[in-house]
Amino acid sequence: EPEVTQTPSHQVTQMGQEVILRCVPISNHLYFYWYRQILGQKVEFLVSFYNNEISEKSEIFDDQFSVERPDGSNFTLKIRSTKLEDSAMYFCASTGDGEPNEKLFFGSGTQLSVL
Amino acid sequence: SQQGEEDPQALSIQEGENATMNCSYKTSINNLQWYRQNSGRGLVHLILIRSNEREKHSGRLRVTLDTSKKSSSLLITASRAADTASYFCATVLRGKLIFGQGTELSVKP
What we know:
The complex is a heterodimer. Chain A is mainly beta. In chain A, 0% of the residues lie in helices and 50% in strands. Chain A has strands at residues 5-7, 10-13, 19-24, 31-37, 43-50, 53-57, 65-68, 75-79, 88-95, 105-106, 110-114. In chain A, the strands form two sheets. In chain A, strands 2, 4, 5, 6, 9, 10 and 11 form a seven-stranded mixed sheet that branches. In chain A, strand 4 and strand 5 (43-50) form a beta hairpin. Chain B is an all-beta fold. In chain B, the strands form two sheets. In chain B, strands 2, 4, 5, 9, 10 and 11 form a six-stranded mixed sheet that branches. Classes of the chains: A mainly beta, B mainly beta. The interface between A and B is medium-sized, with 23 and 22 residues.
């Protein structure tokens, strides 16, 4: 069964450093997403991406965040200058089965720890 | 305010019992979705019910939707220890799929 792949599974970084979280969505999907989940809290929407541009973004997704689909398979989330409060599990998701925002397939996540 | 809020926040039952989780939302929707999350893992889509549907079944899952009350329920029948997970409802708000706080279900063998 096709799946969304995320790397690395864990990332430890120092405050102020840049991190890039990587995702390989399901190959024929068209809509891509990043969510995050701070430990013990709800899953929060960050950004959606379609046709090589951002469709929607949340207030969390400020100028420190960017997304890119550099080739036909990868989808990345970059945090330019990490803060302690960026520590969370980051999930990539994709869907392509018709409508956006329906039946999302999620990766297993990257646990980001900012020290 | 929350778009989707699940109730209860936590539920503990014995294997073989049924588990019912509820979700309330605030705005008009085209569909409502339920997802499961095992501890520390990604979310898995379970079922989608459209606004013109009142009930939908998938295996041991039964979902109802009452658009007049802006609420949905997820029923898991004959629960198993493997059903232990967090369950989230999700609706689209201003173009974004938003998840509720979730119900943490514990099924004891």
